[in-house]
Amino acid sequence: MKKYQGYTIIEVLVTVIAGAIFLIAFIRLAGGATNLSIRAAQRIAAENLAYNNLRQYANSSPARSIYPCSTTNPQPTVTLTSSTGSAPNLPGSVTQEVKADAPYGCPGTILFTSSVTYGPNAQKVVYATYAEF
User: Please, are residues 77 and 99 in contact by the beta-carbon 8 Å criterion?
Assistant: First the structure.
């Protein structure tokens, strides 16, 4: 009697199904890693934009010309710049704001706050620093 050598249809089917499951898992893993990489690059671009906006005002001299302050009439939070548009490497509408405030009264230190809001989920990056008056 001749012995049959080879695979049965069930063995082939189980192998194909197992291979398909591993292939789908690998594709989803690679897609997730790519998505995380894109989001990280967008976050870095937004952080750089917010930081550069902040440095324009915090490094300027004198701070008194940017934030007029007097002991008799303290200023509330002042919006130094506000714009909405697009920015390189950022999705959707991008809103940039730089604000100044004197949280401890005038004269004193000035708090500069720079924020960038981007993307369909309105993700926000905020940087802040103090400058001496």
Answer: yes
Q: Which amino acid is at 89?
A: N
Of 89, 115, 114, 112, the closest CA to residue 102 belongs to 112
Strands (E), the chain: 78-85, 94-101, 109-118, 123-132
Instruction: Quickly state the pLDDT bin for 108 (edges 50, 70, 90).
Output: confident
Read off φ and ψ for residue 67, nearest 5 degrees: -125, 95
- Which among 63, 92, 94 has a CA at the least distance from the CA of 80? 63
Max Cα distance, the chain (Å): 111
Whether the pLDDT of residue 51 is over 80: the answer is yes
Q: Are 95 and 116 in contact (CB under 8 A)?
A: yes
